[in-house]
Description:
Largest sheet: 3 strands, antiparallel
Keywords: Transferase, Tricarboxylic acid cycle
Pathway: Carbohydrate metabolism; tricarboxylic acid cycle; isocitrate from oxaloacetate: step 1/2
Radius of gyration: 21 Å
Helix content: 55-70%
Active site: 265, 316
Bound molecules: acetyl coenzyme *A, oxaloacetate ion
Pfam family, one: Citrate_synt
Strand order of the largest sheet: 1-2-3
Amino acid sequence: MTDPEIHKGLAGVVVDTTAISSVNPETNSLLYRGYPVQELAEHCSFEEVAYLLWNGELPGDDELVAFEALERSLRVLDDRTKRIIDDVPVAAHPMDVVRSAVSQLGGLDETLEQPDGVLDPELNNGRAIYLLAQLPAIVAYDQRRRRGLPAVEPRDDLDYARNFLWMTFGEVPDDVVVDAFRVSLVLYAEHSFNASTFTARVIASTLSDLYSAVTGAVGALKGPLHGGANEAVMHAFDEIGSADKAEAWLDDALASKRKIMGFGHRVYKNGDSRVPTMKAAFEKLAEHYDRQDMLDLYNALEKAMGDRKNIKPNLDYPSGPAYNLMGFDTETFTPLFAAARVAGWTAHIAEQYAANSLIRPLSLYNGPTERHLSR
Ligand SMILES: CC(=O)SCCNC(=O)CCNC(=O)[C@H](O)C(C)(C)COP(=O)(O)OP(=O)(O)OC[C@H]1O[C@@H](n2cnc3c(N)ncnc32)[C@H](O)[C@@H]1OP(=O)(O)O
Ligand SMILES: O=C([O-])CC(=O)C(=O)O
């Protein structure tokens, strides 16, 4: 009998259908429910994009008003969630806070105990928007706590992106900053069966609840081969210092077999479709903050990586320095990714529940052959 073919890392394996987004490396495109992500990033709010991912269509005017009002009404953190956050040592990574807080929200949701409370689509729609509204509050509360600053309460006269920045910094920055932030959220919102979304789908496939699936997804996103790369890019920039040192730094890093964070992708081998849009937003920020030096470093490392390895940047490469310029702490970058991706995760959880099959692949055993105890 021949051994079955192993697809390590599930590379190239198609495990299910999805109607939520399509990642097309051949045409270098990413479509959310059929719409090119670049068009959405140019014309839509993050709220509209979340609505689209969940409902399959963009909201009409009345639908958007109702949706925005609901999201704005769900932004205040429960004291019990604040206590969970306060209990996480500040030495722990902010993604640990996000993971614990999402888990706590599940524990607080009594409707999970109702008959069919886990799977009811209406309840899950409500939970998805609740998580979307709560995550900025969690992330902002935690960054301020780490800086020794008092929490800033949400404002219901601000859209999602502005309110997020308001809660984090206690002021709403200039439109160029708000816009770059909104663009990053739209680009981060969804990306088919990436590792964290697949994790969410695996958990949902056991008919576990939405909060458990999102908690697991947060854990998967934390790793530096996935969402953790945006902060790792910033650590690399800090190590390199300036554009003229990029080549030598890269040669050293490659010689010691380091992975260069923010480069490469499992699906896109000729460049990530989202990078040009995010890079344009980063360029505007660099101009706004008079940081041509950072843009020069970005370009120098990208060029050197192209010359040495012919490997192109992924979305985390422009997002990392863009979030730095906006004023976020480096360890907060991956929580920002999580706040945006919760839209995609919850859309996938709903899709998984709607046509579920337990996700349980096979493995090829390569341990000891059968043996017996001598007792
Ligand atoms: C938004 C996101 O989550 S995008 C992903 C963010 N992650 C990162 O930026 C982390 C850095 N990148 C990587 O580690 C990889 O490119 C991954 C994990 C994203 C994709 O990896 P895979 O599809 O499994 O490709 P794999 O790791 O096998 O790479 C193929 C070859 O390119 C090399 N390579 C790929 N990416 C990099 C990189 N960033 N730095 C150095 N070498 C790299 C590998 O070492 C490998 O070389 P080899 O064939 O000589 O061994
Ligand atoms: O698709 C992937 O493997 C990783 C990625 O770019 C994302 O999740 O946005």
